[in-house]
């Protein structure tokens, strides 16, 4: 059977290779391949996303400290409270889950550009607004924690409004 | 009906009563704030009543009167009472946040945020985990006065059987404070 035309793969050849490849890979995974990975606990998935978002919030505050809007010291208590939230989320992760972070948890580069207080307020507002939806998927204990964290973020929106910037 | 739903309603009944007192002891901008808060708590109270009714239970009626935790004679007392009421409500709503029903959790989340921001409006102090036990608030501004201290003085001296404490939210399944 002719699979090439002037040196290029024909569509039939490509499809045939792909299908046979799928069949082979499918058979091999059924017979001799590694066992399917254990399904990840949805609570762990949720916690990892919460942790990633908190890490991003803290990085945002680090960039806010570079801004000339407000003294860095004024933002420090906000960042500390977010760090407390982050620690609380991490504490709820099962020990065997901490070693396998999702791609979203990958740390970003060190902060280099400043962000305004307005951007921090927007981030706080967005975080607080997202808590009810997250609570719908959470365990009872995590739901309570998220309600409290959301309340703190809502207060942060007000408190940041009192800062000059 | 979930016990936490009944507790949240009891806390809102108490808040409505307390804001009546707070409004009577304040004037100007504080009175406006008290009136706005009074209306917000009545709305939440009615929402909780509806949720309880939807679950086939009968919502509890408010007590004719409530025993205040301290005597409210000056505007500063009224502010302190308002902060205390809002903080206690945040705790009540955190308990409700563990409810199995996602729609109830949503109500709890939004109400907790509202109560926390109202407390901040009365007194600008922030904690990392509002509503959790053992939280120490830090002033958000240099001239902030910090967290209101809770007093146990009974200013009314009333011990009538129909009098309830203004703090009807003992936390049976109290949210545990993150370490």
Automatic annotation (TrEMBL), chain A:
Residues 98-132 are annotated as: Disordered. This is Lipoprotein.
UniProtKB/TrEMBL annotation, chain B:
Gene3D superfamilies: 1.20.1260.10. Residues 154-165 have a biased composition (Low complexity). The lineage of its organism: Bacteria, Bacillati, Actinomycetota, Actinomycetes, Streptosporangiales. It comes from Planotetraspora phitsanulokensis. InterPro entries: DUF4439 (IPR029447), Ferritin-like (IPR012347), Ferritin-like_SF (IPR009078). This is DUF4439 domain-containing protein. Residues 130-179 are annotated as: Disordered. Residues 5-133 form the DUF4439 domain. It comes from the Bacteria.
